[in-house]
């Protein structure tokens, strides 16, 4: 992965969580299915943690879009609300592709 990729740190964090889970299951007793499930859960937790900012930002923006779409705001107020919303989004969601 290229170092200038905005998601490099996310991929690395998820990969580390996966490797940690695989290593942990190798040391623990349990059935093969339990070990596989533990790895899946670790992967899911890593993804959930990495994309929490995106989900929160999308929810806020959806609410703002609903207000703008309602037609109750004139164009100046709608543009102002959109600018304020964009200014408040987390740094991790700015100008970053999700893949």
Number of strands: 0
- Average pLDDT confidence is 81
| H/I helix tally | 4
Reported for the largest beta sheet, the result is: none
Q: Strand percentage, roughly?
A: under 5%
Parts with pLDDT < 50 across at least 5 consecutive residues: none
Over the alpha carbons, how many angstroms does the gyration radius reach?
20 Å
Q: CA-to-CA gap between the ends?
A: 12 Å
Order of helices and strands, N to C?
A: HHHH
- By helix and strand content, what is the structural category? mainly alpha
Based on CA inertia axes, which overall geometry fits? Answer: elongated
Helix coverage percent? over 70%
What attributes characterize this protein structure?
elongated; mainly alpha; single chain; 4 helices
Write the layout of secondary structure elements.
Blueprint: H1 8-27, H2 32-50, H3 52-69, H4 75-88
Helix pairs in contact: 1-2, 3-4
